[in-house]
User: Which sequence fits this backbone?
């Protein structure tokens, strides 16, 4: 078959296949044009998921006759100066959007400049152009796209349902609104619930816009990002580690005002939260990167949804640094959603499911109830009777220890310890309400952070065992530990091979104190078997010290004195990230006084 030149309409349809993937692609291209035109108000109207109608109206600069005619031609743009693809400072620059849309739909473009007496309207019906003709309108541009892919059935049948396409358009407008707080966005149509995001300017504008789009709950449970490193500015907000989602749909990335999908940024966020987020949970972030346009290539994808950084390592480092600094400044703060989940678990007695009455203890029972009246002259109060002595009632052991109420002031953020329940949960009171602290999870985070600090300054201090502890293990586990022994010494753990099926532990990290050495060694052996390489130890530093911290923390089931509980609370207040354990679970829950009163129906 001889080589031939393709006709213009077919060339446009091929180009449309790259640029116009679905209705949301059309919305994205047209809104970007409006933003580049200096619009301060953009109204988006859709019908049937954008397949029947997409209407974008803005109050931008508008176009005169010559610009209007050129706007629907291929590769015609006003946004690229000096033909320099290394200096892209606008959202659109390829000059294909309107020509591609007009080749697969009925496109109407009406525009008016501030100097013109009236506007002009141009129609492109599936590649056939007519106009321009005069039209009365205000300054700006109004673009209508009707019957998208109506004459290209092969493309239309691959579109999703109207509901799915409507949701995709909402997501596109949401991202563009997040990237442009100074622009007023209105999203409406017969296929949706209207959304109105007024423009916000001045200090706090970004947070206000994120509150409009993502909800005030996110802003209340997020930290602000604001750092500059190696010429890369990182801004935005990141949710607290206890404020997570089951998927990554609540992660938004913007580079020089452009919403993008980039594996470097995704990986950087994952690494920044690796210490704090529970497995299979995803942090919520809105990340804004400002970088020299020459350091990023935005021309690697027809829809400009992907890009490529010249120095990926510098960008990754800047993002990790920004998130790490912000999370550290949050200290022990935990998300309010944890308390809301707890409140939702409570129910009034009349709303609870009926159940059989609990057995009543015999009258002759020697167990007598005791009062807790706060008087300082009484000793500790224990509710720790063995279940077999409570007439068949089985429950975890609970204890309330009485002490002088003023022994510790309640004006600390985490308050003063009031009791310990089930030998694991500390009840504390501050000036605003009541707190429940998981002693094991909290101390686990404290030990972990101390480990990291010691490791950053050199080898972790160790303590020698008076008699080496011999741990019997399978031969293959012993071989892995023997190979990893030089690396483990950096963590303060010194061990030697002791025969074919045993390991002798000579020194352990001083920070762990009197820990379960056998359990620690077995846990590390399991980790080495999973990682399958001693060389992976350095890369797995967080996992190693996490396992050590778990063994060195206050265990569940250990009874603490009041001074020990208060010391733990003060350490939490002084330690970054102590609001969640190393597995991503919250270490404490705070119930405000108003929350407690609401549980009892006393709220006004």
Assistant:
């Amino acid at each position: 078959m001889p080589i031939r030149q393709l006709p213009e309409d077919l060339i446009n349809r091929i180009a449309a296949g790259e640029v116009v993937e679905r209705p949301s692609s059309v919305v994205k291209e047209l809104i970007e044009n409006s933003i580049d035109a200096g619009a301060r108000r953009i109204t988006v109207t859709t019908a049937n998921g954008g397949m029947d109608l997409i209407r974008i109206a803005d109050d931008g600069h508008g176009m005169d006759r010559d610009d209007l005619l050129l706007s629907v031609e291929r590769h015609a743009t006003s946004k690229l100066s000096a033909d320099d693809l290394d200096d892209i400072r606008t959202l659109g620059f390829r000059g294909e959007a309107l020509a591609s849309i007009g080749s697969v739909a009925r496109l109407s473009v009406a525009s008016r400049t501030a100097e013109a007496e009236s506007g002009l309207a141009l129609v492109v019906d599936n590649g056939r152009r007519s106009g321009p003709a005069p039209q009365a309108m205000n300054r700006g541009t109004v673009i209508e796209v009707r019957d998208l892919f109506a004459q290209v059935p092969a493309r239309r049948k691959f579109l999703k349902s109207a509901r799915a396409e409507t949701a995709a358009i909402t997501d596109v407008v949401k991202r563009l609104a997040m990237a442009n707080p100074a622009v007023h966005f209105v999203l409406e149509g017969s296929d949706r619930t209207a959304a109105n995001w007024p423009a916000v300017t001045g200090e706090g504008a970004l947070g206000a816009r994120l509150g409009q789009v993502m909800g005030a709950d996110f802003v209340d449970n997020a930290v602000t990002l604001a750092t500059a490193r190696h010429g890369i500015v990182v801004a935005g907000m990141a949710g607290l580690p206890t404020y997570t989602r089951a998927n990554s749909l609540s992660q938004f990335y913007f580079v020089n005002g452009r919403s993008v999908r980039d594996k470097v940024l995704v990986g950087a966020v994952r690494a920044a939260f690796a210490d704090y987020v529970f497995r299979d949970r995803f942090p919520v972030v809105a990340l804004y990167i400002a970088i020299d346009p020459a350091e990023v290539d935005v021309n690697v994808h027809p829809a400009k949804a992907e890009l490529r950084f010249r120095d990926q390592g510098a960008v990754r480092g800047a993002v990790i640094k920004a998130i790490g600094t912000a999370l550290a400044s949050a200290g022990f703060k935990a998300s309010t959603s944890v308390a809301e989940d707890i409140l939702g678990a409570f129910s009034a007695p009349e709303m609870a499911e009926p159940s059989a009455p609990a057995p009543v203890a015999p009258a002759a029972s020697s167990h007598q109830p005791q009062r807790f009246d706060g008087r300082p002259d009484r000793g500790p109060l224990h509710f720790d009777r063995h279940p077999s002595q409570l007439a068949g009632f089985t429950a975890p052991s609970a204890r309330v220890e009485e002490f002088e109420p003023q022994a510790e002031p309640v004006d600390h953020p985490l308050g003063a310890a009031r009791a310990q329940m089930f030998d694991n949960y500390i009840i504390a009171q501050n000036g605003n309400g009541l707190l429940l602290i998981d002693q094991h999870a909290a101390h686990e985070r404290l030990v972990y952070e101390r480990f990291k600090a010691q490791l950053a300054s050199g080898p972790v201090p160790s303590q020698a065992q008076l008699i080496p502890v011999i741990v019997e293990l399978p031969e293959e586990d012993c071989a892995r530990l023997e190979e990893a022994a030089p690396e483990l010494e950096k963590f303060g753990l010194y061990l030697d091979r002791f025969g074919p099926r045993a390991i002798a532990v000579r020194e352990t990290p001083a920070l762990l104190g009197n820990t379960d050495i056998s359990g620690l060694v077995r846990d590390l052996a399991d980790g080495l078997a999973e990682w399958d390489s001693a060389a992976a130890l350095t890369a797995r530093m967080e996992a190693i010290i996490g396992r050590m911290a778990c063994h060195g923390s206050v265990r569940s089931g250990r009874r603490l004195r009041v001074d020990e509980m208060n010391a733990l609370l003060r350490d939490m207040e002084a330690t970054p990230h102590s609001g969640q354990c190393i597995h991503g679970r919250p270490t404490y829950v705070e119930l405000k006084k108003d929350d407690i009163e609401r549980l009892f129906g006393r709220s006004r």
